[in-house]
Amino acid sequence: MSKAAKPSLLVVEDEKDLAYVLASLFKKEGYTVHVARDGKAGLKLARAHKPDLVVTDVMLPLMDGHEMIRQLRVESKVPVLFLTAKRDEADRVRGFQLGADDYITKPFSMRELVARVRAVLRRAGRAGEAQYSVRAGGLEIDFARHEVRVNGKPKHLAPREFQLLKLLIEANGHVLSREELLKTIWGYDESLGISTRTVDQHVARLRRSLASERKRIVTVKNFGYRIKAP
Ligand code: CA
Predict the structure, then answer these.
(1) What is the pLDDT of residues 38-72, one digit of tens each?
(2) Domain 8-123, CATH among 3.40.50.920, 3.40.50.2300, 3.40.50.880, 1.10.600.10
(3) What is the 70 CA–ligand 1 centroid distance (Å)?
(4) Distance of CA 21 from the midpoint of ligand 1 (Å)
(5) What radius of gyration do the chain's Cα atoms show?
(6) Distance, CA 165 to ligand 1 centroid (Å)?
(7) Selection from 129, 22, 35, 18 nearest residue 79 by Cα
(8) Were 130 and a residue from 35, 52, 155, 184 both cysteine, which residue would form a disulfide, CB within 3.0 to 4.6 Å?
(9) Distance 82 CA to ligand 1 centre (A)
Protein backbone atom coordinates (compact mmCIF):
# COMPACT_ATOMS: atom_id res chain seq x y z
CA MET A 1 0.00 0.00 0.00
CA SER A 2 1.29 3.43 -0.82
CA LYS A 3 2.04 5.63 2.12
CA ALA A 4 -1.03 6.61 4.11
CA ALA A 5 0.24 10.05 4.94
CA LYS A 6 -1.70 11.58 7.78
CA PRO A 7 -1.80 15.34 7.56
CA SER A 8 0.80 16.78 9.90
CA LEU A 9 0.20 19.84 12.00
CA LEU A 10 2.61 22.13 13.74
CA VAL A 11 1.15 23.77 16.83
CA VAL A 12 3.01 26.80 18.16
CA GLU A 13 1.59 27.89 21.49
CA ASP A 14 3.37 29.07 24.61
CA GLU A 15 0.54 28.41 27.04
CA LYS A 16 1.49 24.98 28.26
CA ASP A 17 -2.00 23.71 29.04
CA LEU A 18 -3.47 24.96 25.79
CA ALA A 19 -0.59 23.48 23.79
CA TYR A 20 -1.24 20.15 25.44
CA VAL A 21 -4.99 20.28 24.84
CA LEU A 22 -4.50 21.22 21.19
CA ALA A 23 -1.95 18.48 20.60
CA SER A 24 -4.25 15.84 22.14
CA LEU A 25 -7.23 17.10 20.21
CA PHE A 26 -5.45 17.00 16.86
CA LYS A 27 -3.92 13.60 17.55
CA LYS A 28 -7.38 12.31 18.31
CA GLU A 29 -8.49 13.72 14.95
CA GLY A 30 -5.86 11.54 13.31
CA TYR A 31 -3.19 14.13 12.57
CA THR A 32 0.50 13.88 13.23
CA VAL A 33 1.30 16.73 15.62
CA HIS A 34 4.48 18.62 16.46
CA VAL A 35 4.47 21.25 19.17
CA ALA A 36 6.71 24.27 19.67
CA ARG A 37 6.44 26.70 22.56
CA ASP A 38 8.07 29.76 21.02
CA GLY A 39 8.45 31.32 17.59
CA LYS A 40 12.07 30.34 17.03
CA ALA A 41 11.41 26.71 17.88
CA GLY A 42 8.30 26.89 15.68
CA LEU A 43 10.33 28.04 12.70
CA LYS A 44 12.87 25.30 13.30
CA LEU A 45 10.20 22.58 13.52
CA ALA A 46 8.40 23.91 10.46
CA ARG A 47 11.62 23.62 8.47
CA ALA A 48 12.40 20.18 9.84
CA HIS A 49 8.97 18.57 9.46
CA LYS A 50 7.34 20.51 6.63
CA PRO A 51 3.85 20.27 8.16
CA ASP A 52 0.66 20.45 6.10
CA LEU A 53 -0.66 23.20 8.36
CA VAL A 54 0.69 25.53 11.04
CA VAL A 55 -1.62 26.51 13.88
CA THR A 56 0.06 29.31 15.76
CA ASP A 57 -0.51 31.79 18.50
CA VAL A 58 0.47 35.40 17.71
CA MET A 59 1.96 36.46 21.06
CA LEU A 60 4.91 34.14 21.51
CA PRO A 61 8.24 34.34 23.30
CA LEU A 62 11.50 34.88 21.36
CA MET A 63 9.74 35.56 18.05
CA ASP A 64 6.06 36.40 17.62
CA GLY A 65 3.76 34.40 15.36
CA HIS A 66 3.67 37.05 12.65
CA GLU A 67 7.45 37.26 12.40
CA MET A 68 7.73 33.48 12.41
CA ILE A 69 5.28 33.19 9.49
CA ARG A 70 6.91 36.09 7.65
CA GLN A 71 10.21 34.20 7.73
CA LEU A 72 8.58 30.89 6.89
CA ARG A 73 6.77 32.41 3.90
CA VAL A 74 10.08 33.04 2.16
CA GLU A 75 10.50 29.33 1.71
CA SER A 76 7.08 27.74 2.18
CA LYS A 77 3.44 28.14 1.21
CA VAL A 78 2.23 26.07 4.14
CA PRO A 79 -1.30 27.08 5.21
CA VAL A 80 -1.44 28.99 8.48
CA LEU A 81 -4.17 29.39 11.03
CA PHE A 82 -3.51 32.04 13.66
CA LEU A 83 -4.87 31.69 17.15
CA THR A 84 -4.98 34.92 18.98
CA ALA A 85 -6.34 36.71 21.97
CA LYS A 86 -6.07 39.97 20.04
CA ARG A 87 -9.31 41.23 18.66
CA ASP A 88 -7.63 44.18 17.08
CA GLU A 89 -8.52 44.67 13.42
CA ALA A 90 -5.04 45.83 12.42
CA ASP A 91 -3.64 42.66 13.88
CA ARG A 92 -5.86 40.50 11.72
CA VAL A 93 -5.03 42.51 8.64
CA ARG A 94 -1.33 41.99 9.31
CA GLY A 95 -1.97 38.27 9.66
CA PHE A 96 -3.82 38.04 6.37
CA GLN A 97 -1.17 40.09 4.63
CA LEU A 98 1.34 37.53 5.78
CA GLY A 99 -0.75 34.89 4.13
CA ALA A 100 -2.82 33.56 7.02
CA ASP A 101 -5.47 31.15 5.81
CA ASP A 102 -7.65 31.72 8.80
CA TYR A 103 -7.76 33.57 12.06
CA ILE A 104 -9.41 32.34 15.17
CA THR A 105 -9.91 34.46 18.27
CA LYS A 106 -9.45 33.06 21.77
CA PRO A 107 -11.49 31.79 23.48
CA PHE A 108 -12.70 29.44 20.76
CA SER A 109 -14.53 26.17 20.86
CA MET A 110 -12.54 23.05 20.09
CA ARG A 111 -15.21 21.94 17.67
CA GLU A 112 -14.91 25.18 15.76
CA LEU A 113 -11.14 24.90 15.66
CA VAL A 114 -11.30 21.34 14.33
CA ALA A 115 -13.78 22.41 11.64
CA ARG A 116 -11.57 25.32 10.59
CA VAL A 117 -8.48 23.12 10.47
CA ARG A 118 -10.31 20.65 8.26
CA ALA A 119 -11.52 23.43 6.00
CA VAL A 120 -8.03 24.89 5.60
CA LEU A 121 -6.58 21.44 4.85
CA ARG A 122 -9.36 20.77 2.39
CA ARG A 123 -8.71 24.02 0.56
CA ALA A 124 -4.99 23.31 0.53
CA GLY A 125 -5.74 19.85 -0.82
CA ARG A 126 -7.62 21.38 -3.71
CA ALA A 127 -4.60 23.51 -4.45
CA GLY A 128 -2.64 20.29 -4.62
CA GLU A 129 -0.57 20.82 -1.48
CA ALA A 130 -1.81 18.62 1.33
CA GLN A 131 -1.73 14.94 0.64
CA TYR A 132 -3.88 12.53 2.47
CA SER A 133 -4.83 9.88 0.05
CA VAL A 134 -4.09 6.21 -0.26
CA ARG A 135 -3.95 3.93 -3.23
CA ALA A 136 -3.87 0.16 -3.18
CA GLY A 137 -4.33 -1.55 -6.52
CA GLY A 138 -7.58 -0.27 -7.98
CA LEU A 139 -8.65 1.24 -4.68
CA GLU A 140 -8.16 4.95 -4.06
CA ILE A 141 -9.21 6.81 -0.95
CA ASP A 142 -9.02 10.54 -0.50
CA PHE A 143 -9.56 11.17 3.20
CA ALA A 144 -9.61 14.94 2.97
CA ARG A 145 -12.41 14.83 0.40
CA HIS A 146 -14.11 11.77 1.81
CA GLU A 147 -13.96 10.07 -1.57
CA VAL A 148 -13.47 6.45 -2.50
CA ARG A 149 -12.82 5.21 -6.02
CA VAL A 150 -12.55 1.71 -7.36
CA ASN A 151 -10.81 1.56 -10.72
CA GLY A 152 -11.46 5.26 -11.12
CA LYS A 153 -15.17 4.93 -10.43
CA PRO A 154 -16.51 6.89 -7.42
CA LYS A 155 -18.16 4.78 -4.72
CA HIS A 156 -20.58 6.10 -2.17
CA LEU A 157 -19.80 4.78 1.27
CA ALA A 158 -22.01 5.31 4.29
CA PRO A 159 -20.18 7.21 7.06
CA ARG A 160 -19.58 4.07 9.14
CA GLU A 161 -18.31 2.11 6.17
CA PHE A 162 -15.93 4.93 5.41
CA GLN A 163 -14.76 5.01 9.01
CA LEU A 164 -14.28 1.27 8.99
CA LEU A 165 -12.17 1.45 5.87
CA LYS A 166 -10.17 4.31 7.31
CA LEU A 167 -9.40 2.43 10.53
CA LEU A 168 -8.31 -0.66 8.63
CA ILE A 169 -6.05 1.38 6.41
CA GLU A 170 -4.54 3.21 9.34
CA ALA A 171 -3.85 -0.13 11.01
CA ASN A 172 -1.67 -0.77 7.97
CA GLY A 173 -2.28 -4.50 7.64
CA HIS A 174 -2.51 -5.24 11.36
CA VAL A 175 -5.60 -7.08 12.51
CA LEU A 176 -8.28 -5.09 14.31
CA SER A 177 -10.61 -7.05 16.53
CA ARG A 178 -14.33 -6.70 16.10
CA GLU A 179 -14.56 -5.35 19.66
CA GLU A 180 -11.96 -2.72 18.86
CA LEU A 181 -13.87 -1.65 15.76
CA LEU A 182 -17.13 -1.63 17.64
CA LYS A 183 -15.69 0.50 20.41
CA THR A 184 -14.08 2.99 18.05
CA ILE A 185 -16.87 3.39 15.54
CA TRP A 186 -19.99 2.91 17.61
CA GLY A 187 -18.61 4.00 20.98
CA TYR A 188 -19.61 0.59 22.27
CA ASP A 189 -22.00 0.58 25.14
CA GLU A 190 -23.63 -2.69 26.17
CA SER A 191 -26.87 -0.94 27.00
CA LEU A 192 -27.22 -0.02 23.33
CA GLY A 193 -27.46 -3.69 22.57
CA ILE A 194 -25.05 -3.57 19.67
CA SER A 195 -23.07 -6.72 19.13
CA THR A 196 -19.97 -7.54 17.15
CA ARG A 197 -22.40 -8.86 14.55
CA THR A 198 -23.02 -5.20 13.66
CA VAL A 199 -19.36 -4.95 12.65
CA ASP A 200 -19.71 -8.01 10.42
CA GLN A 201 -22.77 -6.52 8.75
CA HIS A 202 -20.96 -3.29 8.01
CA VAL A 203 -17.92 -5.14 6.72
CA ALA A 204 -20.22 -7.05 4.37
CA ARG A 205 -21.65 -3.74 3.14
CA LEU A 206 -18.21 -2.24 2.79
CA ARG A 207 -17.10 -5.23 0.71
CA ARG A 208 -20.09 -4.81 -1.57
CA SER A 209 -19.22 -1.14 -2.02
CA LEU A 210 -15.62 -1.99 -2.86
CA ALA A 211 -16.72 -4.27 -5.70
CA SER A 212 -13.65 -5.77 -7.37
CA GLU A 213 -11.44 -4.58 -4.50
CA ARG A 214 -13.55 -6.39 -1.89
CA LYS A 215 -10.87 -8.98 -1.25
CA ARG A 216 -8.66 -6.36 0.36
CA ILE A 217 -10.74 -6.71 3.50
CA VAL A 218 -9.54 -9.95 5.00
CA THR A 219 -11.46 -11.83 7.68
CA VAL A 220 -9.29 -13.16 10.49
CA LYS A 221 -11.39 -15.98 11.79
CA ASN A 222 -12.86 -15.58 15.28
CA PHE A 223 -11.05 -12.33 15.72
CA GLY A 224 -11.52 -9.47 13.33
CA TYR A 225 -10.38 -7.89 10.12
CA ARG A 226 -7.35 -6.50 8.41
CA ILE A 227 -6.58 -4.88 5.10
CA LYS A 228 -4.39 -6.49 2.50
CA ALA A 229 -1.77 -4.38 0.78
CA PRO A 230 -0.99 -5.06 -2.87
CA1 CA B 1 0.77 33.45 23.75
Answers:
(1) 999 999 999 999 999 999 999 999 999 999 998 99
(2) 3.40.50.2300
(3) 17
(4) 14
(5) 20
(6) 39
(7) 129
(8) 52
(9) 11
